[in-house]
Amino acid sequence: MREFHGRYRESLLGAFWSVANPLTMIVIYTVIFGKLMRASLPGHESTPFAFSIYLCAGVITWGLFAETLGRLNNVFLDNGNLIKKSNFPRICLPAISILSSLINFGILLAVYLIFLAVVGHWPGWVLLAVIPLLILQLLFALGFGIFLGTLNVFFRDVGQLMGIVLQFWFWLTPIVYTWTALPAGVQAVLKFNPMQPLILAYQGIFLDRLWPNFFDLWPLVLLTLFFLLLGAHFFLSRVGELVDEL
Description:
By secondary structure, the protein is mainly α. The chain has helices spanning 2-8, 16-36, 50-73, 75-78, 80-85, 92-118, 130-154, 157-171, 184-190, 195-208, 218-238, 242-245. The longest helix has 27 residues, at 92-118. The two termini are 26 Å apart.
């Protein structure tokens, strides 16, 4: 919360900007894709703002993943002075980064849900399925992020490289295009993208009001367990050297 307040402390309108930014994003996507480009989704021709709903579902949840991973990637470098001057459990820092990302995401999601209610496309009870998906996504980002954040202390190029990787990763995930629009050969390759079934599950909830097929998420569950173990092991084996490298 301190970081959230600090972000808007010097601005005249304060926390209003935390609502204005996501609201602007939804309005832009709705006007450009819904009205100007008149983009439509196969099978959803009768659903108003279908492409905007689809696009926002992917952009918002991907934004949480990218922000969480970006924060964790630099969490030890950004708090270098605090780590050197204070003695506290270093593992608290990733938890604070995730909570900060969740506050931003919560505001985005609230504005998005208001938009869905206004256009008459409220997801209903299926909205509860977002909770396990978010938990899985955050745990995946946590394990991967702790590993990258620790590695970034010793090899500073990791942070720069991940910025580029995230840009490619975004476009290799069906967020601004539909999964069914891809050729079968491309689908076969992109199935190895762990974020692909997760983003499709979010889009299915918000656009089609369907419960996710959780069986499709088992590869991501296994990958999450792998990165949690890898991140914890790597961090614990190097935590004593962090102060010397910072």
